[in-house]
Amino acid sequence: MPKSIAIDGPAGAGKSTIAKKVSANLGFIYLDTGAMYRTVALKAINEGVDTKSQNDVEKIVENIDITISHENNTQKIFLDGVDVSEAIRTPEVSAGASNVAVFKEVRLKLVDLQRKIASDKNVVMDGRDIGSYVLPNADLKIFLTATVDERARRRYEELLQKGQKVDFEEVKADMIIRDNNDSSRTFAPLVKAEDAIEVDSTSMTIDEVVEKIMYYYLEAGKTSPLQ
Ligand code: CDP
Ligand code: CDP
Questions:
Q1: What InterPro entries has UniProt attached to this entry (predicted)?
Q2: Residue 146 domain-assigned (yes or no)
Q3: 225 lies in some domain
Q4: Which residue's CA is the nearest one to ligand 2's atom 6?
């Protein structure tokens, strides 16, 4: 059985940064499931479809072609054969992703893809419902949190560095809307799995969080990469 680590939590908690490093340490692949929801949203936006319209979004997802590749521990995501890894990182796509993620048909399709990848390879997977729904038997489940101010500050800095013009209060407001969307949807919401370990990263550095998760996996966890 391939090994798996699930990292869930709200936006800006540090999931992808931490998951990338943990997967590199262990030689696992890193699977960013948020990128898949973003890709569905990008297709809707490109086709002029309202990301809140269930019928239209379900039509889009019926024959969407999403493929993932991993090279040098970096995930690339392709929409209908085109690399959209960068195009999915805009605030518009962030908001759209949280809209399309509410629809069950969208989730079923993407979860199927996520489980297929994990059935074949050792993975560190990050998202909202990985420990609670996608991989209920993951070897380690982490629920990563931080205060909303700290998460918004991190995302704001990140967007500034990418040269995107943003307003802090707007970034924070968008994040709160997305958190609410994610926590309140009926199907596979953002929730801490019963057997997940909660890590509050508000005042922790990236390396401290990575060290803590490596400790849980190697020292206190159920498995060793040598096995
Ligand atoms: O994937 P998620 O939205 O949970 O967060 P992320 O994209 O990994 O992290 C958002 C930003 O916060 C990145 O720029 C990270 O470098 C930064 N970060 C941080 O400053 N301190 C941490 N402990 C974790 C992440
Ligand atoms: O990086 P950030 O945390 O801002 O977002 P992301 O992980 O790229 O996910 C984008 C959106 O996809 C989230 O706001 C969620 O609504 C949705 N998502 C989800 O519903 N389930 C997942 N497993 C991953 C993402």
A1: Cytidylate_kin, Cytidylate_kinase_dom, P-loop_NTPase
A2: yes
A3: no
A4: 34
Q: Which helix (H) or strand (E) holds 98?
A: helix 91-100
- What is the distance in A from the centroid of ligand 2 to the CA of 31? 12
pLDDT tens for residues 110-122?
999 999 999 999 9
Structural contact between residues 7 and 67, judged by C-beta atoms closer than 8 angstroms: no
CATH number of the domain to which 208 belongs: 3.40.50.300
| Strand ranges across the sheet with 29-32 | 29-32, 123-127, 4-8, 140-145, 197-200
**Beta carbons within 8 Å of 220's beta carbon, 6+ residues apart:** none
CA distance 155 to 175: 9
Which pLDDT value is given to residue 219? 78
Residue 226 pLDDT class (50, 70, 90 cuts)? very low
Does residue 74 lie in a domain region? yes
Interface predicted TM-score (ipTM): 0.97
Three-state DSSP at 183 gives helix
Phi, psi of 127 (to 5 degrees): 175, -140
Q: Are 11 and 175 in contact (CB under 8 A)?
A: yes
- Nearest bound ligand to CA 207? 1
How many domains in the chain? 1
Element (H, E) at 141: strand 140-145
Phi-psi region of 59 (alpha: psi -120 to 50; beta: other; left: phi over 0): alpha
Residue 192's domain comprises 4-220
Is 200 close to ligand 1, i.e. is its CB under 6 Å away? no
